[in-house]
Amino acid sequence: MKTLEHKIPPPLVGALCGALAWALAAAAPEWRLDGGWRLPLAVLCLAAGAALDMWALLLFKRQRTTPSPLAPGRSRTVVQSGPYRFTRNPMYVGMALLLGALCLWLGNPVSLLALVVFVAFITRFQIQPEERALRAKFGTPYEDYCRQVRRWL
């Protein structure tokens, strides 16, 4: 399955998983949850996910390194400040929060399967290959960073 590594842009994976969440919710309408808590929590997840993504992108721009997830070998440095102090992948965490916001808005726990698919796909076909490329490029300093900071949260 190496053919899928670094081939599908993560935002597209997120959008496809969003469509999957929508389809799953539509396929099981009897599982829909009602409650006034869903919308505020969805808005909170949306805001947190968007803010995390923008913050992480801004740090990449400041460090003058590529934010392209399809070309980790072009990285000039390993960003370790801001949200990168508590997760090695804040952009993916941000995307997961955006997808979680959609699932909350849909109000159907079955839609959360799409979030599981997103995390599994991104971990296997994006993060693990990125980590191999960054280890090859930056060596021991990157290894040390990986020991100190978790992959997701």
TrEMBL record:
Native organism: Pulveribacter suum
Record protein name field: Protein-S-isoprenylcysteine methyltransferase
InterPro entries reported for this sequence: Phopholipid_MeTrfase (IPR007318)
Coiled-coil region: none
UniProt keyword terms in alphabetical order: Membrane, Methyltransferase, Transferase, Transmembrane, Transmembrane helix
GO molecular function: methyltransferase activity
Transmembrane segments: 37-60, 95-122
UniProt topology in membrane: Multi-pass membrane protein
Cellular component terms per the entry's GO annotation: endomembrane system
Pfam families per the UniProt record, alphabetical: PEMT
UniProt subcellular location: Endomembrane system
One BP term from GO: methylation
Domain of life per record: Bacteria
